[in-house]
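Schema walkthrough. Field components (list of strings):
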Amino acid sequence: MSDEPLLSIENLQVSVAGQPVLRGVNLSVQRGEVHAIMGPNGSGKSTLAHVLAGRSGYQVTGGSVRYLGRDLLALAPEERARAGLFLGFQYPVEIPGVNNAYLLKAALNAIRRERGQSEIDAFDFLNLVKARMQTMQIDEALLSRGVNEGFSGGEKKRNEILQMLVLEPVLAVLDETDSGLDIDALKLVARGINTLRSPERSFVLVTHYQRLLDHVVPDQVHVLARGRVLRSAGPELAQELERRGYDWLLEQAAA
Amino acid sequence: MQTLERIFSEYRHWQDGHPPETRRRSAAEQLRELGLPGVRDEQWRYANLRALDQVPDFAPAAPAAPSALVPALPEPVPGFARLIFNNGLAPDDLPRRLPPGVSVHAPSGQWYTLLGADERLALLQQLFGAEASVLRVNGAAQLEILYVAQGSGASYPALHLELAPGARLELIERHLGAHEAGGLICPHVRIALGATAELQHYRIQNLGTRSVFYDTLSVQLAESARYRVCQVALGAATARTSALLRLQGRAAALEWHGLSAARDQQVSDCRVRCDHVALDTASTALFRGLASARARVGFDGDVQVIANAHGAKVRQSLRGLLEGSGSEVNLRPRLTIHTDQIEATHGATTGQLDEQLLFYLLSRGLDPATARALLKSAFLGDALAAIGIAPLRQQIEQSLVAHLGDLILGGIPT
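Field assembly_structure (string):
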């Protein structure tokens, strides 16, 4: 196995509608690691997550991103997903008329085809999904409903984690998956993430608060502010941020 | 020569000097008085009326040989008695082919009373077409009528349906056929629902893409009658439905579920006028229109609630999807309300596929073509969900796939 990081972001600069949002982000994620990205509102956390997943509307004006030894930015969103990159949305969209089960199966088969595997048969698929739904305590009836249609906020977030559990990505980027969750739902989401933790799989958790990190202990915590990573340290940094907020870091950076 | 003059000229020629029947003479007089609709008529604003000018022949076509019809016919729907109207003409042995509970009657003079200017093109049916087939329903029945248009010449099917109080009917009407370019199909269907009668009406227009289709539907509902329509418009170069629905009895209720999918340069337009004229009536109109390439789709939902129709409930949900740079969808949700004791909601949106939804699907590994097909199918799914007869829904889905090409209907929740 190569020593190259699973994900390597170098001097990434991104603008939205001509306004710079990311001003030179550097980040390196090894296989098996969990990284938390924290930061105040408007610091560029979600922008980073969406740029990694390939969303349009963001102009990459400089820098590079390598993933599994490939130029990630050169890949279309669906190619990134099939290469094992999963984005958990902060605001999962509702798609009335597209069946949850259909989407899950189509997504899984797209990834399996990319890996040279045959398509999963209906029986195995149902067994797999039902087991994962049990982990996430999601009612099986939701499978036949439209994607996120009429789901509560917590159900939508749990459904994102369910998709992650079924698709078994190599790198999961979870954009504020913990926001708006009550403590029980937060524990479920954390359980889903921990279920999937392995030496081969990595996570980038974008979060505002330390509380998710009580349940999913990260290897590294980064503070993103003003479009840059201002500080990186171990999990103790999250606890310090919880106590002191972000101002002291911003002041240090300005000095 | 103006189109109206040409119509009368062809009519005289077709009559060949014979004195016209009363109904034809009356239709000619009304048509002369009202004139043909034009683009300045608000109710016809989005219809393609130029196609009327280009109709090659207004005289009715002779029936096609039965053997020529057979290969094009869809599989029968289990439980439904099937009638075939050949180039607008009812089968000679109509009474024998009707299911129990449905009988044939002679037309009454009331049939020829016009309800409004929307029905003007139905006058062409009265001018050129055969007598309406008058069917009366008692009890419960299931009936399928195929209107098959073939060859050259126009086709003028006419049906008058009376549901006795408490009667229940499931009716499938399909327009099929491979007409010659500009061939006119001009049906007129008139329905009267007695008190507490229920009609589930499926109207499927899947004509060849060279036909010109001007359709008139007039319905009256008595007390507590229920009328539910699922209309699917796929075919014809030009299609227009003019529906006039009158909720005349207390607590009468109507649901209109419409789906129009137009491609290339098709023009598909539908106007539904619904009059609430009694207490506690309810109407729902749901429309989904998809226009690709340079096609045009229109829906005009015109609801009128008169001053004394207290307790009316009105709901409209109209959505359009644009799929081509030259495509056009015109939705007009219109409520005219003369009472303050009413519950009304309405909404109309037109746009392209939602980029957020598209990205969500791509981020799960679906390729762009599949993601688009899935979202298009989902868009149409609302209207398809109203089709409660599984084999019929399957046939319609197959027709949609054949018409639009890139749909994934297996992804629609059931």
